[in-house]
Amino acid sequence: xxxxxxxxxxxxxxxxxxxxxxxxxxxxxxxxxxxxxxxxxxxxxxxxxxxxxxxxxxxxxxxxxxxxxxxxxxxxxxxxxxxxxxxxxxxxxxxxxxxxxxxxxxxxxxxxxxxxxxxxxxxxxxxxxxxxxxxxxxxxxxxxxxxxxxxxxxxxxxxxxxxxxxxxxxxxxxxxxxxxxxxxxxxxxxxxxxxxxxxxxxxxxxxxxxxxxxxxxxxxxxxxxxxxxxxxxxxxxxxxxxxxxxxxxxxxxxxxx
Length: 257
Hints:
Elements: H1 18-23, H2 26-35, H3 49-69, E1 73-76, E2 81-82, E3 93-97, E4 107-108, H4 109-112, E5 118-122, H5 128-141, E6 146-151, E7 156-163, E8 168-171, E9 178-181, E10 186-191, E11 194-199, E12 202-203, H6 207-248, H7 253-256
Parallel strand pairs: 2-4, 5-6
Antiparallel strand pairs: 1-3, 3-5, 6-7, 7-8, 9-10, 10-11, 11-12
């Protein structure tokens, strides 16, 4: 099999068409993957702290949950994604099922052997049409099973699930204020305007909340231990005072004991 020479255009970085990839040697495939940019180029400035916190909390809560449950799922944030001969995109959160969750510089569909299973975007500012129209059309065309958008300023969630037969998305209708994700096997919901994930009735905590809860438990345990030590010290003092009083009365405390 001869090598298929493919040059990446830095102005519009794309993975090669699938037929070019199929003809390429392993060495040429490695060269192509290495030549693809590993950082997204931003057409717009970052969306600020609200966007950053919302994204990091979501990723952190999911990573901690799947670490504990040992589910085989890959999660990432703003990772460059390359479908064959498609413009690169970098979602706020992506999930892929049944793949090794090792660190990656990019997700190249041809190299990984599968595309994304879920995308979540946090829309805090900028072009709503991109998230609510362009992405809906594009992600459905790419075969991404589920797509969610969280709007922290509007305290809203929207979700879509792929109808494979129709090749298009259908809106996910919330049940009891929760949007079910079959990919994550979790529910998405809003609590005090924040995006939260639920496994049944259990709410997933992000890393900061876990640290705060652990810190609170430690503080409570230390307070209980200090209170017990204080009570024990007071009991010892009372016993000493009683023994001293008995000796004043000519009574041996050991005989009473």
